[in-house]
Amino acid sequence: MNLTGVFIARPIATTLLTAAITLAGWVGFTLMPIAPLPQIDFPAINVQVALPGASPETMAAIMVTPLERTVGRIAGLTEMTSSSATGMASLSLLFDLDRDINGAARDVMAALDAARSLLPPALPFNPVYRKINPADAPILVMTMTSPTKPPGEIYDAASTIVAQRLSQVDGVGQVLVGGGSLPAVRVELNAPALQSYGLSVENIRTAISNNNVNIPKGIIENTENRWQVDDNDQAKTAKEYRPLVLAYRHGNPIRLQDIAEVEDSVQDLRTLGLANGQRAILLIVSRQPSANIIETVDRIRAILPRLQASIPTSIDLKVVMDRTPSIRASLHDVERSLVIATVLVILVVFLFLGEVRAALIPSIAIPVSLIGTFGILYLGHYSLDNLSLMALTVATGFVVDDAIVMLENITRHIERGLPPLQAALIGAREVAFTVVSMSVSLVAVFIPLLLMGGMVGRMFREFAVVLSAAVLVSLVVSLTTTPMLCGRWLRPVDPQHRIPSSAWQRRLHWGVRLFERLENGYQRTLDTALHHKRLVLFLLFLTIGLNFYLFSIVPKGFMPQQDTGRLIGRVQADQNISFQAMRDKMTHFIRICNSDPDAQDVIGFTGGEARNAGNVFVVLKPEGERHATSDEVIARLRTRFKAVTGASLYFQPIQDLRFGGRVGNAQYQYTLQGNHLEELRTWSRRIRIALAKLPELADVNSDQQELGLESWLEIDRDTAARLGVDPRSLDQVLNDLYGQRIISTIFNPLNQYRVVMEAAPPYWQSPSMLEQTYIYGTHGDMVPLAAVVKIRPGNDSLTVNHQGQFPATTITFNLPPGVSLGQATDAIHRTFKQLGVPPSIQGSFEGTAKVFKDSLSSEPLLILGALVVVYIVLGILYESLIHPLTILSTLPSAGVGVVVALLITGQEFNLMTLIGIILLIGIVKKNAILMIDFALQAERSEGLSPEEAILKACVKRFRPILMTTLAAMFGALPLALDWGSGGELRRPLGIAILGGLALSQLLTLYTTPVVYLYLDRFRQRWGKRFTWKRIIPANSIASDV
């Protein structure tokens, strides 16, 4: 049964089928979510614990280690890193891609409950977890400013009202409020006054705590009424704390205001937030893993008017950095490229056929195939993103191939004098098997991509599914709609009068005349090539060798660096810097950034536990208004930052795709691990210094910070015991005076505020002040601290980092202009070996660099897998072991064309280029399929010799070969020339396809017939040993299609 004949004979049914495909696709298009890239985030959870005043070593020992032991047993955990700082620690947990994040969160919560008994009993805060990846860039940054409100009140509104409401938005993982601190009552003690009155710090802490309580008082009730008992047990303002009586001396009360300054202030004085040079409170919004960025941001923006109305009118809430405009602009540009590619492909068809009616047929097939694909993508829960739309843009070049082959063959019969309907029936039956072979073998190319695991596999999977869906829809259209339209729309042609009569028709017919001249020239050069077969065969082997050589020298990268117009920076200052000095350097950095002509907004904050670090965000002007790329702006600022001594600011452009869970100062990470901490620190320092000298790396820095200044107190335990001082009491006094200790809580209707106690500023600005500290001994005496300890200077770690429960140091780096990630990683490996690092120190790439190294090793296997699958599919279709080799012989020239095009344009060989090569495996072989299928038919039906058959096939199939190749090239052209938003992500794909198609088209027109003839000789001489008699010719399948 001839299935194509059924659709040709039933135009109404075929039209309705086409309309149904289009309608289903349009509905799917309107319902699909929008995203920058496929949703391939690792399930990530961040755990945070706090113990105010604890050193990094203490946090790592008594807080992090117990948590790592319990959390590390969770199934599906692939990466666990931790970072401990003063008073705070963070654990980043990454799970397997197939792990459900909600299930992982439940397991984490159970592990935290199990570890609670191993943590200090007096822990002020329980460990908390959030479903976020701390290494992911924020999706929104907002500022709150006011000309009249103090920073504490602005921070209170931000934390109490705005952040809480934002956290409730679906998709939001965390809202970090930075640049300030909550209001608090601060008690700043005068150490000499305490000594003169004979009061201990513990006396003060106990008195304040006892004078600010909020506990149940009970009720009074009789048979008729009920009274709630309450009192003024809470002191809520500094005014109420100042007159508190602490003790009596000689009958006179000693009040808090006599020995301390008591002020309404903020909980932490050492914080700073700036927006374009002005004080501001920052709200930094991060999304949950797998949450859609655009949908989450849209939900946030929808509630902003209500949020502004819920805070004081004198406070201005403003969105300063939003990641979605660049995403929307990038998607708009790729949609425009899709439209341009469609128009160019239609023009190619028109120029070669020279007939408006003929050109309209593929003009219908292309949009129907592309729109119909959206229906399949919607059912597969895919999104409209850069990769899916790029796949459709490329698909315009080969979804039309099936229609072109079908149309060209039917047109050829009409030009011979057959009526259009009869030509459609005969022509469709002749090439149906060819069309099926082309489509099925093209889809087969993507099978290895569909089976790939890991992050890269997930990303490729969507690309492969989109292309496969487009090819299959186009196959249906080419076997149904295209032959039906050919039979109904095309006009009969008199073979004796093929030249158009009217002047405008002759002008439009110039493409046909051009093609005829090309065809004549090709036939002459083909004759010459067939007379020099050995030379042509040598050329084929030369291209195979060139592939290996060119691949070894081409720069290799991972993903193209996107210019999103958003920069994220990390300030790293000297490890012994004070907050006052850090504040000045932070202000200087932001002033420099603000002065850059391409900067639109600059915001930053510092403070909290990371005393020598800060964060800066820069929003660049829109692409049409700025004159430099993100990388050029970073290079320009890097030079100007040298004017700031004692601190560095490392910038990197925000990327839509980021890997790993560790926060770093630069984009790429190299982690060192060892069992012995001191050995690790020694070698980490040597390796960092050596790497900083490499020209292949920029912004080399390390998270190893063990040179912070420390005042080490060595307790004389015998003397301390004799004087009635124990280490616990000593630590408590030190924490009371120098740790901004929270000693009480003030309960308000909307929030809880703290009472903070520490020594007054004059008494915590020098280590010498420790000698003026007194401790209340158990014998009732005031004991000077100097009597029980020896004070000596030393160095302290600002952070303690672990990876997989072991000590680790991470060196981060960026790439200078013109250097690929492959060159950088090779340089690091080379330096690691040259230094003679002992086996006890292990180095490994992490994050994006790790995924790059893994993908680099799998790329040859991926290409080989695609070739094997295509060979198997072609062997099945042609029932031959020889003909698939002829078809695959077209690929080496495409590989050479890809690498040469990359070298000429200065592009790297990256994942987008790899996608282009996989596509070329499917596209380039179509030329050989068209030739070989026609040649086999000619041998069987006309009794021609192999030489005569392949020569006739090359000439007769020259037009569809040239048309399909040019259609594919013009489909990729908008991507190769794309300089719009996000164009750096798409250009390598377009350049790879153009380069591969251009060279392969030029060479395979000559190498394919030569290989066909050589393999035919091999088959005739040796083939009987490896083949079986075929009962049913493979090509007879076409009669049923």
Q: Describe it for me?
A:
This is Multidrug resistance protein MdtC. It holds the Pfam family ACR_tran. The chain is α+β, with helices and mostly antiparallel strands and 1041 residues long. Among the domains are: 3-31 and 327-482 and 518-559 and 853-1031, Multidrug efflux transporter AcrB transmembrane fold (Up-down Bundle); 33-133, Multidrug efflux transporter AcrB pore domain (Alpha-Beta Plaits), CATH 3.30.70.1430; 183-214 and 231-266 and 708-796, Multidrug efflux transporter AcrB TolC docking domain, DN and DC subdomains (2-Layer Sandwich). Helices cover 53% and strands 18% of the residues. It has 32 helices and 31 strands. The strands form 8 sheets. Strands 1, 2, 3, 4, 21, 22, 29, 30 and 31 form a 9-stranded antiparallel sheet that branches. A 6-stranded antiparallel sheet has the order 14-13-18-19-17-20. A 4-stranded antiparallel sheet has the order 6-15-5-16, with helices on one face. Helix 11 packs antiparallel against helix 31, helix 14 packs across helix 26 and helix 29 runs antiparallel to helix 31. The longest helix is centred in the C-terminal third of the chain and has 40 residues, at 983-1022. It is elongated. The termini are close together.
